[in-house]
Amino acid sequence: MRRLLTVAVTAAVLLAGCSRSSLSPDVWVATVCDALASWRATITELNQRAATAMSRATSIEETRSNLLDLVTDARDATEAARASVESAGVPDVSGGESVARAFERSLAATRDAYAAAAENLRELPGDDGKAFYDGVVDIMDRLRRRYEQASADLSVLDSPELRAAFERAPECR
Questions:
Q1: pTM of the predicted model, to two decimals?
Q2: So where are the chain's domains?
């Protein structure tokens, strides 16, 4: 009997850990928009910091280091935003799980794009300025394209309740 109780309690704990809370559309939207606003502010600040550092760079290695700082910090900020969106749960609307997953996938793809850029920057030659800087241009162009592709497909927002919540939420402006 004791063993059966232990198995039942363990199963209940595991199942509870797997469930995702459902939130009203307004609460979910506010939570997601807060996470995204914080992320955008961080990305803006990182870009400004990188621009300042890049204006002072005098070598390939300084340039590489500055760009690596930018993309690794952006990767980390994007993962934090993804985790915040995931922890927001699911909006309590038809298709809410799909909407929540779309936002999470978008941020995961963006995080992965930053990680790939960091890996590519590390692989650039340090002894050939032209090859290095041409490589930087190519890497940043690929990052931009992947970033655009990762944008959340908001066509999944076919819920009138969610559309209205996004339009109402001051956090989303």
A1: 0.83
A2: 22-172
Residues in the chain: 173
**What DSSP letter does each residue of 88-133 carry, written as one string?**
T-EESSTTHHHHHHHHHHHHHHHHHHHHHHHHHHHHS-SS-HHHHH
Digitized pLDDT (tens) for each residue of the chain, 173 residues in all: 333 333 333 333 333 334 456 889 999 999 999 999 999 999 999 999 999 999 999 999 999 999 999 999 999 999 999 999 999 999 999 989 999 999 999 999 999 999 999 999 999 999 999 999 999 999 999 999 998 888 756 555 678 888 899 899 988 88
116 to each of 69, 122, 144, 148, 161, how far by Cα in Å?
A: 13, 10, 12, 15, 37
Crossing angle of helices 96-123 and 60-87, in 10° steps, is: 170
Name the CATH topology of 22-172: Four Helix Bundle (Hemerythrin (Met), subunit A) (1.20.120)
Q: For residue 48, which amino acid is it?
A: Q
